[in-house]
Amino acid sequence: MAIVRPFKAIRPTRxxxxxxxxxxxxxxxxxxxxxxxxxxxxxxxHIINPDYKDKIKRNGIEKFKLVKxxxxxxxxxxxxxxxxxxxxxxxxxxxxxxxxxGIIAATAVSDYLNGNIKKHEHTITARxxxxxxxxxxxxFNADPVLLSYQKDNSINAILSKYQETRAExxxxxxxxxxxxxxxxxxxxxxxIVTSAFKNINSLYIADGHxxxxxxxxxxxxxxxxxxxxxxxxxxxxxxxNIINFNRLIKGLNNLSxxxxxxxxxxxxxxxxxxxxxxxxxxEIGMYLDGRCxxxxxxxxxxxxxxxxxxxxxxxxxxxxAPILDITDEKTDKNISFEAGSTPLSVIKQKIDNGEFTVxxxxxxxxxxxxxxxxxxxxxxPPKSTYIEPxxxxxxxxxSLD
Length: 401
Fold this sequence. Notes:
Helix content: 25-40%
Number of domains: 2
Radius of gyration: 23 Å
Number of strands: 20
Number of helices: 13
Shape: globular
Distance between the termini: 27 Å
Strand content: 25-35%
Structural class: alpha+beta
Low-confidence stretches: none
């Protein structure tokens, strides 16, 4: 049983929504971030970076207090307003290749604590504490956690009903994505959505593990009604777009190309081909020395459990650690990650120009495999997946005050 609730969102006025809503500030280069801040007085980035003009940058609680002040300033100037009635918010993001539709809602922290919300990634305690302090100090949550659920016809019917009407928001961003948002105030429709989620046993975190964990921490010190929930974007799992992460490696740990290839033969069938893209089970692509290879793991090279049979684990346990001496992918400076959306031609160029020595090309992991890992309370290898949609900050804001 999943508990979701409507809430009174703080959100941009209709005329400013395209100017306020932004990508995550971490996704901008320093140059682009500066340009956005200097030329758009309405961007939500001003709230996240209130001291960008200051020579001395604040950190921790001191910085979070400045964020709170800038947030209040946006409300006072009526760039942001709060709805006077509880609502669900239907959000649709449409790119040139994908359409994502779901419901922005308040989701119960208790479902995270009791295991109804399933996780598949490790979280870092220091980041949990930092985000908890951020929420506690600022009093708002502007980035929904991406949660998925098994397809439900009654929820789809509500989505379709509203998507046939005029949207409250409709704007296009520079990446050619169309964004729409509908406000669901009708009590009957709210009841249909609430009841439908009560019949759903499990929700799965697709993106936002640290945000969930920090919201759970917050309830230990700030047990208000608002803090008992966190903002989420709930989307049917069949809509998720799961992209792989490829690995680019500097050096061969003092091995020659031939020496490295010989070591691979012990656990892989190595075939030189004209195509680096893997397609078969236990198959990994490799680009090395201007050549493409396909590596097929031998059956006795890995333990056949839900984590170790995944391609990132097969790669880590049979090549990265034992041959290339990369034992911690999260900290080793000899490894870099490229999302599968990066063209293979770009990856090849980075090898050919000597920036990296070898690239490993992985397949996207199906969501069924991610669910199996989460259901067994295990964790995915680092940088296993890049999951879309990525939502805009500041489109809807959940008040914790």
